[in-house]
Amino acid sequence: MTKNSNQLISGVTLLITHYNRSESLLRLLKTIAGHEISFEQIIVSDDGSKKEHQDRLKGMQQQLGFTLIMAPVNKGLGNNINKGMDAVKSPYILYIQEDFVPKAAFITALKDGLEIMKSEPQWDIVRFYSFPWSPYPYLKPYKKGFSKMIFSLWPWYTNHLKFHVYSDHPHLKRAGFTEKFGRYFEAPNGDVTEMKMCRSFLKNDGKALYYKNYKELFEHDNPEDEPGLFRPDKVKTKTYADIKPLYWAYLKYKLMKDTVSFVLNK
């Protein structure tokens, strides 16, 4: 699965972060193999999963030949990404969490995104997915299905999602990403880690492309036996959304809160 398939994505390491979803990981790896692509290296970085999952990872490693990086205890998503990136030897990194399933159209988008990054050094990240309920709001069409992500503090940019130019969703980036934006903040809460990188990305003038028709590229699937992480904030937002005046006020509060936090660097 590294260099024996039909199409080698040259110069790219596939980095997968994993935690207690070994069946989902196997599904991801089998899907990639089914698309007949390979990478310079596949790294699976595990965040101290339960023993049964770690044992399965070791068996999968022997069968599929990827690089496995283990952790004795769970240290959070930031640590998991950092130790995975430390093992990368190629100039580019394709990052995917284990519960995503790439569709056939992703292969073309990946090749196009890589070609753009190789020929246009201004781009720091190419994004391939967003949750359907929170697409990035400010885009300018660019090329090959990608759009430039626009960020501005001007008040007429009223959607608080503008602060999420960076995302932990599937993306392509340069191996030197942390040299420009810093290492991932290591905290137990993965949402905190992601938000810290969102801030650093904007503060350090990060430039990003976003595949507008992202629904064509990935399916995000959490089966009942390997569910997604519970996020209280998402439940709160859904509750507010059922009451329009309350939801409007909540979104304005989020925009103000995130703007002040960004300006004061908190």
Written account of the structure:
This protein has eight helices and eleven strands. It folds into two domains: 223 residues, Spore Coat Polysaccharide Biosynthesis Protein SpsA, Chain A; 37 residues. It is an alpha/beta fold.
Quick tags:
two-stranded antiparallel sheet; 2 domains; Spore Coat Polysaccharide Biosynthesis Protein SpsA, Chain A; alpha/beta; 8 helices; 266 residues
Helices and strands, with pairings:
Layout: E1 7-18, H1 22-34, E2 37-46, H2 51-64, E3 67-69, H3 77-86, E4 92-97, E5 100-102, H4 105-119, E6 125-127, E7 139-143, E8 146-149, E9 171-174, H5 177-181, H6 190-203, E10 208-211, E11 218-220, H7 232-241, H8 244-264
Parallel strand pairs: 1-2, 1-4, 2-3, 6-10
Antiparallel strand pairs: 4-9, 5-11, 6-9, 7-8, 8-10
Helix pairs in contact: 7-8
How is the CATH topology of the largest domain named? Spore Coat Polysaccharide Biosynthesis Protein SpsA, Chain A
Q: Could you name the ranges where pLDDT drops below 50 across 5 or more consecutive residues?
A: none
CATH top level class name of the largest domain: Alpha Beta
Rg (C-alpha, Å) = 18 Å
Helix content: 25-40%
CATH architecture of the largest domain: Alpha-Beta Complex
By helix and strand content, what is the structural category?
A: alpha/beta
Number of strands: 11
The biggest beta sheet reads:
9 strands, mixed
Pfam families: Glycos_transf_2
GO molecular function: transferase activity
Protein name: Glycosyl transferase family 2
Domain Glycosyltransferase 2-like: 14-111
